[in-house]
Structure prediction request, 497 residues.
Amino acid sequence: MTDWHEIIAIHEAMLWRTVYRVLNHRDDALDCCQEALLDAYKYALNNEVDDWGALLTSMATRRAIDRLRQRIRARRLMVSLNDAHEPATDADCPVQRAEASELMNHLRILVIDLPDKQAEVFWLSCIEGFTHQQIGRELTISPNESRVLLHRARLQLASMLDSSHFDARRTP
Amino acid sequence: MNEERFPQNEQTLDRAIALIRQLPVPESPGAKALLAQIPSDPGTTDRPIPQSLRTHRSFLLRPALHFATAAAVALLAVGWLFLSSPVSIALAQVIEATTEHRIVSYTLNTSADFKDSGAATLDEVVYVDLKSPRFRIERHEKTLNDTVQSDWVTIQDKHKDRVLVTSSLELIVTEKDTKDENQLKWIKIFANGGDAGKKARLFRVSDAAGLRPFTFAKSDKTFLEILRALESHKEIVSTKDTLNGRNVRKYRLEQNDTILTLWVDAMTRLPIRIEQEVRNPSPNITACKWVYADFLWDVDGRTLDELFSTKPPEGYTLEDHINGK
Prediction:
């Protein structure tokens, strides 16, 4: 029988970090973690799980990107000052911090416009550091397909980024 | 496939990736909170799997809850208003005048100016029972580029420990009716989103896994909270003024990036307009503003029980999160 408390004891930090990085919002992140765990619970009823860490990361990423899509689509409807504060980096300068925050939000907005699989592959590879082998296993695609999806995602994101606005002038 | 490259942008992309990877993450809420939806003894019982909270808190639902929670906080504060020692006698009289009434309704307009996507507004009508901790919020609007008629009602009754949220979402423009690209995009998104139709959702106020009341209360306020906030500040400036041809007393409090203004009818001593403005609340938002107006006191054709009933209306599909149906 699956011991969920043991699974959480091992993977809690990773799961929370994965979701929070996408959403940067505590309540949304908690909802997503719960949803991802529920997904994993249902999956585990009928399937053997070899790698709980990879499964949870993958499911959490999918849920979080879905939630991010909803949030950004609703942006014109929703006004919440709670979303205003973002502890972006360890930079001291408020301007630098604000720009970093803006750049991260910009990337999040662009990611949700990618096709589902591209978005997941991009996030799992670039943010979570999954190998193409791991991504292929979790998304049931071949490692080669994962490489192609990542390539397309990066091209698409680079083409949409407004780097003149976010130049690297303040990067040390 | 066109594979035009953007080397400068790729550097920026890598920088954004690095920033997200370094993003400080707050402490996890803990195993108990994370496992809230997992049955306590999975694999040995046939009990149904709990429904995902996602359907409870769809993106269109959140704005209503946002203000609903704040309204609840204001009601809890009423008792404090009577007990506190007022700095301003005039404001104490205003508070006393408001609490002589049973129900108040007002319109609440929320607006924000986003740097990258322009202005956004939200209009709601709020009904508050001033003698009991319950309220009703209605929002009727065309949304998603005027492709969807959206009607939301949130009713919360703290004594009954019930929150009822009803929604009616209907596509009013079809792909055949429009050539507007934005509208076509939203029609597609909405058709795939699964939020259409009439739904009623019933929760417990006290259900920690549900609505989490009061989460948002710190950032926006109901009029009673604003009165209380004004009352406790010695910096408040009070002047005579006129508003829509009425003699009023105007109270203004400016602190840092926040400005609160209250107009009170000189005759009735009741609030007739409140504005709260916050400048530069975030890097992406240049200003947020809340306007409370059109105050009506004890005027509504419906009975109290009807106005604040948490019984799901007929014709709505019920999601009962209290009894797990």
Notes: Residues 20 and 27 of chain A are 10 Å apart (CA to CA). Chain A is about 70% helix and 0% strand. Residues 76-92, 166-172 of chain A have pLDDT under 50 and may be disordered. Residues 52-73 of chain A form the longest helix (22 residues).
